[in-house]
Amino acid sequence: HADAAMYKSKERGRNTFHFYEHGITERAMRRLQLESRLRRAFDDRTLQVHYQPLVRLDTGHICGAEALLRWNDPEAGAIPPDHFIALAEDTGLIVPIGEWVVGEACEALKRWETEILLPADFALHVNLSGKQLLQKDLPTRLSDAFTRAGVSPARVVLELTESSIMESEATGVAVMTALREFGVEIAIDDFGTGHSSLSRLKLLPISELKIDRSFIRDIAVDSDDAAIVQAILALSAKLGLGVIAEGVEHAEQEAFLMQHGCLRAQGYRYARPMPEDELIRLLVDAPSLALRETVDTD
Ligand code: C2E
Ligand code: MG
Ligand code: MG
Ligand code: MG
């Protein structure tokens, strides 16, 4: 195709511009269509929130769940967050959608607290966009959401990426500080992939790090990744921060993490993101997800 396009551009000269422009227009059109479909999905309340368990490796119990947005379009089917979160951020839609996710997740947490005996350390994780951090009234809005749902902020962890914190500058840090003041915890998501300096990290009002899954993937075979993860674990211990490994899929990764003192993990090895009713069943039926190979099944 590249060859064909180049050939065309040599042959037709000025037409190249139209050819190129046409491509841009089509892309912009598709974005606009996606945006209006997303807006409609949100208005119609057809977006959903799924939950992925977080697991405590030494005991195997579910010590939390991360709320993850799901969009099932009637025509296109399941559209992954990686395809629409950026668009929602560009258009500002992420602000009402993100707030809706917090509300949904808190109402779900309230049901779990009422219907089942949750482990004492169970934490509900919710992703926040950097755009939300720029709202000065975010702390009051979230605190209102917790009050309305009847959940304690101490059970909630807000996940922010390094880049969204960096982009939101001083406002973001002030908002994070206010959030911590009323009792929520804050985790840095995808840790290691952003550009935060360690001196900046020290000043952030955060409580834990989530090690990006790109470092976990080859942890058992790649000595560089192993060294990076060990360094992050040492850093979090020294700074008094909690730590969670993302994207754990295999027993070897789990063994490495346990051996190096990482006690919490999330990944397909334990469970995929699932609808609320499935999580409830899992919490009731199979409270131990880790260390499965050590279970004596006869
Ligand atoms: P994230 O916050 O880092 O969420 C973890 C992502 O890793 C999820 O992808 C999850 O399904 C995936 N994952 C978990 N375990 C494994 C594993 O073992 N292997 C692999 N390959 N993947 C695993 P998902 O649900 O597609 O979400 C992608 C991203 O979209 C999230 O990354 C988050 O940045 C964003 N996102 C999702 N929901 C929301 C939301 O409500 N608000 C905002 N602002 N962002 C959201
Ligand atoms: Mg996350
Ligand atoms: Mg992550
Ligand atoms: Mg991510």
Describe the secondary structure blueprint for this structure:
Layout (H helix, E strand, L loop, with lengths): L1 H11 L2 H29 L3 E10 L5 E12 L3 E3 L1 H11 L2 H22 L7 E5 L2 H4 L4 H12 L6 E6 H6 L1 H13 L3 E7 L6 H6 L4 E4 L1 H4 L6 H17 L2 E4 L5 H9 L4 E2 L10 H10 L13
Helix pairs in contact: 2-3, 4-6, 6-8
Describe the structure.
- It is a single chain.
- The chain has 298 residues and is of the alpha/beta class.
- The protein has 13 helices and nine strands.
- The chain has helices at 2-12, 15-43, 81-91, 94-115, 130-133, 138-149, 162-167, 169-181, 198-203, 213-216, 223-239, 251-259, 276-285; strands spanning 47-56, 62-73, 77-79, 123-127, 156-161, 185-191, 208-211, 242-245, 264-265.
- Strands 1, 2, 3, 4, 5, 6, 7, 8 and 9 form a nine-stranded mixed β-sheet that branches.
- A hairpin with a 5-residue loop joins strand 1 (47-56) and strand 2 (62-73).
- Helix 4 packs parallel to helix 6.
- The N and C termini lie far apart (59 Å).
- The site of one magnesium ion (MG) has 4 residues, from strand 6.
- One magnesium ion (MG) binds at residues 189-190, 210, 246.
- Its main location: membrane.
- It is found in: Cell inner membrane.
- Keywords: Cell inner membrane, Cell membrane, Membrane, Nucleotide-binding, Repeat, Signal, Transferase, Transmembrane, Transmembrane helix.
- GO terms for molecular function: nucleotide binding; transferase activity.
- Residues 31-287 form the EAL domain.
